[in-house]
Write a structure and sequence with these properties.
Length: 299
């Protein structure tokens, strides 16, 4: 059956799936399985931030949307020793999944929702850097809410470790009036203060460069909720199979050095990265499967 709401389009050098549905519109790049637009009809605003200077080039991650960081997060030297020991050669930040072409596994449509599953498997290029066999699936469920699930399956004979993140960029009209709730008392590591461990007091706000790795007291299913407050928008982000999240804003000076980023962009974006990082990294034995998931909804 031919899709009714989905069509394949080309944006400069990159292929994308464009979804036009009565409940929402969405744009999903096949490179990196990177979602760059989710606009519910109820609010008519893209709930994801995307740089105005973004470049749609092969092999080049885009600044905005939801880049997928896998099978490691951030700079390699800040990952657990088990992850560092797996790498062969020089490892770029955030892994290789975000810059590689993914394949369409399935598209399911109805008048109520659209589900798209993209897939990445090991190949000669991945194994020269990371010598493991895997199946990685990114599942996107669109309704008036957004659900994103990243599932790793160890298809080989060797156990491996991963750190990972759904690196979501959010828009805001004013970063100084943007807050993240349900964080009081949480432990975090401040990457800008010699990786010191600190404790969150009250809600998270933004008044300077922010780069923090938070660790939450999740329930038995490793599920926790964050409420996001910004001018004219309130969101709920429910994270599952995760005890960690990264909160980031580059502020003034770092904004001048970032690619695909204008000097004033820091005023209108921030990142909440649903994650498995540091002590929350995952080990997968042969045939084991592990998922990282979030649900985003308007409040």
């Amino acid at each position: 059956m031919n899709p009714v709401f989905c069509q394949t389009v080309k944006i400069d050098q990159l292929e994308a799936i464009k979804v036009e549905h009565p409940l929402f519109t969405a744009t999903l790049l096949l490179q990196g399985a990177q979602l760059i637009e989710f606009t519910p009809s109820s609010c008519n605003n893209n709930l994801l931030w995307l740089s105005d200077t973004v470049e749609y080039k092969l092999g080049k991650p885009l600044r905005g949307g939801i880049p997928i960081c896998w099978p490691w997060f951030g700079n390699m030297d800040k990952n657990p020793t088990k992850i560092q020991q797996q790498i062969q050669g020089e490892a770029s930040a955030h892994g290789f999944a975000r810059s590689m072409p993914w394949q369409v596994n399935s598209i399911t449509e109805s008048c109520h929702h659209v589900e798209i599953i993209l897939q990445l498997t090991n190949n000669q290029q991945t194994q020269t850097l990371w010598p493991f066999e895997f199946n990685l699936q990114a599942r996107f469920v669109f309704t008036n809410t957004l659900e994103v699930e990243l599932t790793t399956t160890n298809t080989g004979a060797k156990t491996f470790a991963i750190s990972q993140a759904l690196h979501t960029y959010f828009p805001t009209d004013d970063i100084t009036k943007t807050y993240i709730h349900n964080t009081h008392g949480s432990r975090y590591i401040d990457a800008l203060d010699n990786w010191k461990e600190k404790k969150q007091n009250g809600r998270i706000g933004f008044s300077e460069e922010t780069d923090r790795l938070y660790f939450f007291n999740a329930d038995k299913l490793d599920t926790y909720e964050l409420r996001i407050e910004s001018p004219n928008t309130q969101l709920v982000l429910k994270n599952t199979q995760s005890k960690s999240a990264v909160i980031w804003n580059p502020w003034i000076e770092k904004s001048k050095r970032l690619s695909q980023f204008s000097p004033q962009d820091y005023q209108h974006m921030y990142c909440i990265e649903t994650a498995n990082v540091m002590s929350d990294h995952k080990m997968l034995v042969p045939n084991q499967q592990q998922s990282l998931k979030f649900e985003l909804s308007l409040l």
